[in-house]
Amino acid sequence: MEAKAISDQTYLEGYFDICRILRKKQLLIGKLNRKAEVQDKADTENAKPEDADGDTIRQEIKQLNEEISRRDRGFWADIAAYDPEGKNLGLEKIAQHYKLSIAEKRIILFLLYLQQNHFNANVCPGNDLVATFDTSDSIVERMRLARCLASSNTLVKEKFIDRNYLDDNVTHDLGYYLLKNALYRISRAVDGDNEFYKDTTGVSADIEEIGYVKIPQRKLNQVVLPEEAKEKIIFFLDDYAVLDSRNQTVGKKGISFLFYGAPGTGKTMTAEAIAMHLGKSLLIVDVSKIESMWAGEAEKNIVKMFKAARDNDMVLCLDEADSLLFSRTMAMRDHSTRTVNVMLQEIERFCGVVVLTTNMDQIIDPAIERRISLRVKFENPDKLLQEKIWQVNIPLEIKTLSDINFSLLVQRYDLSGGYIKNAIENALRRMKQQKRQALGMDDLIFGAEMEKEGLFNKKNQRTIDGFSKW
User: Fold this and answer.
1) Residue pair 324/338 in contact by the 8 Å Cβ criterion
2) Rounded mean pLDDT of the chain?
3) Domains of the chain
4) Coil, helix or strand at residue 63
């Protein structure tokens, strides 16, 4: 019997149908885990939980496992019959070249599906991936799947996937995502290019020279800001997103945000949320890698960072932007003036989104004003906002005791957002070291006291040996 003809289009559509079921299972697993958390919290507090019956969900997962297994076996049998040597289909060419197993191909296809269909869900926790693909509820199978995600495995080594620690995750689970490098190779192979493996986008090499890429985890509704400021940011982003979706590159103008204010008030966190809102990665530039004592080098590095953001379609974030945009009246050398000039030129030419952050906006060159779309002042939060920051920064998966009193915390400790986040991380470390399953008020007080002590030391360092810091 002649094998059924398959194209790259039907290949991807066929497995994406399976991915839809996998995604449904992934969401059900998350729901089941949340129900388990409710039960654990009730057990910790010796309270009777609300109805948290997971039997219906488990039965649905069991049915999905049967459907996934049946359809998955049929899919790979059809592929093997049509293209046994992996010479006709793009992804099979890739699999042959890199010696990928079926499990590794499944992971690539599922992450590709998420990337194509779920902007804000294209980073998948490793535990989720393993649980989603394990259809037999087998410890051995889960261990085999976990090995596919190891740093020594082909998927990571050959830059198909990368991983990053998920923010606010005390278990330190890694989030996995498909690299643009992999998308580039897949698209070339699907287009019939048999030398898809020879050229890469060079994302990693370029970016390591100027900073690092952050896969955003926070949404704008998780950032605690005055509503007026948040509404203005969203106004500009939504207008930009409409143009971006229409691919109007000719005559398209980028967006430049200037975020200024005291340290720890959420400037970089908001840049991350902006990238999340647009479904893009965030390129965070390390100013120390841009600056140079050699004439001309800083200017080259500035051009390089804008090019990297442009070529890889990333939101660009430049922390401590005052280092490269200080007023030219303060310049001590000619090449310092040229550095500012190049920065101003590149911001004006950039068609993407750039976020400039600074603690010292008063020293930035006045010429930046006409190049900035929106200037936002980040102030130390009032007591109401501080309370909200405490609440949203405790990870959802962490069990909490009923003795936590956020109002008392903000009355006792006047901390900005960054310091509150650090205090919570200190509290979680204490909880973990003491091998407890729930976070309590004592832990949060411990974390806040550590941050308060650190702030006290910083204030005392403002005057050293008779010299004023400012």
Assistant:
1) no
2) 79
3) 8-201 (no CATH), 212-378 (3.40.50.300), 383-458 (1.10.8.60)
4) helix
